[in-house]
Amino acid sequence: MRSTMRLIQSLVIATLLTAGAAQAQKIKVGYWTSGFSLGFGVVMEQLKFAEKEGLDVEWVKFAEVNGPTRAIVPQTIDLAFAAPSTASMSIAADGVPVKIVLATQIAEAQIVVPAGSPIKSIADLKGRKIGMSPPGSATHAIVSSVLEGNYGLKATDYSVVPGNEGRLSQFLLQKEVDAASIRSVTIAQMSEDVKLTRLASVVDEWKKLTKSNAAPILAVTIVHSDYVAKNPEAVARFIAATRKALEFGSKNKDKVAELLQQAANMKPTGAKAYASQWDGAYMASFETGDVDSLKRMHAIRKAAGAAKSDPPDAAFLTGPYQRSKQIK
């Protein structure tokens, strides 16, 4: 009898140990520690959302926006969190064995002019200088397609002054451009003395152009095909963690600001302005409409000569996202 009980106990312990080992799946996650991927990444890492889903995470940080995308090719990392959507689709189109499994960042921006400008509508931008992200970027493709599709403004009807967010705000303040497409977080972090007039929301204009409710997507989560083939449950758990982190950030913006001050050395005012834009900047979705939005964005870049081929349909893997919905 005792030997039977010992055997049963041994089997139970072995089962529990096996289950624990299976839950503690190792995964190397890379993200860019600047730009707008910073906030989401900091919340995920500092509050250990992925670890709470039973993952053993090694966080690999990159100082350059395309660092995670490049690192996934030789499998230096398993998963790139908030990787640029354009670069992700481009490497998939080039045959790199990666899967896009989640949309994480909205290509949010406002088209603005200085207060008191004679420009009162998008139609008035004809013949003007517009500051925006450089040609080839996702945001540039989206804004230019919106201007043409919704307002009939072709690329030859205005001049583009390219730059990053900091440069674009400077161009606008120094009146080197007549208008600019800049993110709401940049506007929120500007001095209260700066007065701007908003002409349009790029997200709203994109939905109008595409006749859908799907937002334009700036960043996605990509995973190496080998890793997801061997560890589909780990990827689903990471996505579940991302969805929970998204909800947390939406409900706890003061905590997000606190984390940004601690982990990114942000000043209180800037951190609060950053956190206040959480709902308009981040997402954690991979529905059919999101996939369609990504494909539409890539088609626009391809038509403009910024891409040569299309990513295969198999590169858009929705299974882990659907599985994540079942993880409570």
Distance between the termini: 40 Å
Order of helices and strands: HEHHEHEHEEEHEHEHEHEHHHHHEHH
Q: How many DSSP-defined strands? A: 11
- Strand line-up of the largest beta sheet: 2-1-3-10-4-11
Q: Please, could you describe this protein's structure?
A:
This protein is an alpha/beta fold. The protein has two domains: 2-106 and 216-324, 3-Layer(aba) Sandwich (D-Maltodextrin-Binding Protein, domain 2); 110-210, Periplasmic binding protein-like II (D-Maltodextrin-Binding Protein, domain 2, 3-Layer(aba) Sandwich), CATH 3.40.190.10. It contains 16 helices and eleven strands. The strands form two sheets. A six-stranded mixed sheet has the order 2-1-3-10-4-11. A five-stranded mixed sheet has the order 7-6-8-5-9, sandwiched between helices. Helix 2 (37-46) packs across helix 12 and helix 12 packs across helix 13. The chain is globular.
Task: Sum up the structure in keywords.
single chain, 328 residues, alpha/beta, D-Maltodextrin-Binding Protein, domain 2, 2 domains, 5-stranded mixed sheet, 16 helices, 11 strands, 49% helix
Short description:
The protein is α/β, with parallel strands linked by helices.
Q: Can you lay out the helices and strands and say which pair or pack?
A:
Elements: H1 2-23, E1 25-32, H2 37-46, H3 49-52, E2 55-62, H4 67-72, E3 79-84, H5 85-93, E4 98-106, E5 110-114, E6 129-132, H6 138-151, E7 159-162, H7 165-173, E8 179-182, H8 184-189, E9 196-201, H9 202-210, E10 217-224, H10 225-230, H11 232-251, H12 253-264, H13 268-276, H14 278-281, E11 282-285, H15 288-303, H16 319-324
Parallel strand pairs: 1-2, 1-3, 6-7, 6-8
Antiparallel strand pairs: 3-10, 4-10, 4-11, 5-8, 5-9
Helix pairs in contact: 2-12, 6-9, 6-15, 12-13
